[in-house]
Amino acid sequence: MNPAPKDVSDPSELPISPTPNSLRPIVKRQRGIWGIFSSTFLTIFLAEIGDKTQLATLLISAESQSPWIVFTGAAIALITTSLIGVLLGTWLAKRLPPKTLETAAGTLLLFISVMLLWDVVQLG
What we know:
It contains four helices and no strands. The chain is an all-alpha fold and 124 residues long. It is extended, with a radius of gyration of 25 Å.
């Protein structure tokens, strides 16, 4: 049974319960739809242009002599991988705090960088 709430006229007299960082509300950056869209488009476009996926698409198109079929297949493949990324990111965001995701992403990128650097050193 809970005790009856006290009538408090001064808010400073309210009991203060410490709130752990994990329970604080997440403050989302307020960006408009076009801001999110344009930053996503530019990031993915710049990352993909000249990427090995684009080189593979170029070679398949040159070899097959069917550019529109290659374009359709490549577009559907990129849309599918993007959908998987969005669904996985949404699933992770519901289960992990943003700070943990940032740390994990940074650690993963550092690991990939070290492995790429190791490959370069091994080739040289």
